[in-house]
Amino acid sequence: METLVAMFGFALITAFTPGPNNTMLMISGANWGLRPSIPHMLGISIGFPLMVFAVGIGLGGVFVTYPILHDVLKYLAFAYLLYLAWGLARAGRHDASGERVGKPMSFVAAALFQWVNPKAWMMAVGAMALYVPAGADVLRATLLLVVVFAITALPSTIVWCLFGTGIARFLDSDRRVSVFNAAMAILLVVSMVPTLV
Length: 197
Fold this sequence. Notes:
The protein has helices at 2-16, 20-32, 38-65, 67-90, 107-113, 118-131, 138-168, 174-196. The model has no long low-confidence stretch (mean pLDDT 84). It has one domain (2-196). It has eight helices and no strands. The radius of gyration is 18 Å and the shape is globular. By secondary structure, the chain is mainly α.
């Protein structure tokens, strides 16, 4: 029981603290609202627990055996995040016809993003190291972690998206939208810099 409580504590803290997923959800909520952002939220809420499962059944060991893969993933992730940040910085404004520029991230894109999200890797590998001791039933412990992360992921995504919808009230002009999106895109990129060191 103590281990389960500790798992939930770890999952809640890591799920609700700022990171690439939460920043992008806040931007999505601010630009498009809660309902259009549901596929994005579900992509994270399902994609991350699936990633935890994959790490638990052995993918994490591949990175231990071949550390160069970790470096390659790190730089690919940073390049992809730069691309996403560029798109996010330009999103939300209105074009000449009055339509909003851009669209929320899709379910598949959000689920796949977990594989290049450094915070997601830290959470998955960290959870496995902390809560799956040597000699434990790896499959059972991994499945328990998957359930815990699945339970905590959806509320976190909803809260961050709602935070964005709350901010949207102050984004009453294309200029304010542009400034907000650019600032969030810069923060997204800056949040990745420590992972490159």
